[in-house]
Each structure stands twice: as structure tokens, then as C-alpha cells.
Design brief:
122 residues; 30% helix
Length: 122
């Protein structure tokens, strides 16, 4: 049995709400602070790469690479949240991920969005 967090993820912080939407139902945006991002670059693991190469011959999910990408996205998200908190935000709106090759040596994962202060309507 695998841990749910091994192959998926999401927000773990309760201090900063992260949403992919531009607004949050039931909340108003009191102040927009600006862009924030969290970044990580991961090098390739030789053992994982060899295993992935062999697995790709037979087809199927590359579970080692999937797990590494999940860990990387979660790290980028944690850094995004730290940046938002440091700037006084309690929310990040319009959050997105960007994943690119980093000079052929690894993978760059960036979580970015708009830091804001929100409060409940009413």
C-alpha cells in the first residue's frame, strides 16, 4: 500500500490559502501584495533514470520519477507559501506550476501566484 502523498499532493499550510482561482468565494481581496514564487531544481538520480529507461521499454508509469516530481512540486509550494507569509499575505491567488528542463542537468519546478490579503465577506 502506498502513501497518498507519495503520488499526489496539495496544500498542507493552514496559514496561507493557496488557490488556482482569481478569487475565493465568500472572501474579498483587501490588498494585493504582488507576485510570489517558490523554486526548486532537482538533478536526475542515476538509478531512477536507469530504471525509468528500462520501464519505458515495456510501458507504464515511471513511479520513481512521479514520486520525485511530487516531492519537488511540494517543496516549490512550501517555498511559495513561505514567501507569501514573509510579505504579510494570507492567500496566494491564481497559483500555477511551471516545469522546465534546467540546462539538461535537471528539472526546474516553479510555483507562482499573486500574494494577497483576504478576509471573509460579511
Amino acid at each position: 500500500m502506498t502513501n497518498l502523498d507519495d503520488f499526489g499532493g496539495g496544500q498542507h499550510s493552514t496559514e496561507v490559502l493557496v488557490a488556482t482561482t482569481n478569487d475565493v468565494p465568500g472572501y474579498r481581496v483587501d490588498r494585493v501584495i504582488g507576485e510570489v514564487f517558490g523554486l526548486t531544481v532537482r538533478s536526475r538520480n542515476l538509478g531512477t533514470q536507469i530504471g525509468a529507461g528500462l520501464k519505458s521499454l515495456a510501458g507504464g508509469e515511471l513511479r520513481g520519477l512521479t514520486k520525485t516530481l511530487v516531492e519537488s512540486r511540494n517543496q516549490a509550494m512550501d517555498r511559495l507559501i513561505d514567501q507569501a507569509k514573509a510579505r504579510g499575505a494570507n492567500a496566494v491567488l491564481a497559483m500555477r506550476f511551471d516545469v522546465t528542463e534546467a540546462g539538461g542537468n535537471g528539472t526546474e519546478i516553479c510555483a507562482y501566484g499573486t500574494a494577497a490579503v483576504i478576509s471573509p465577506v460579511g
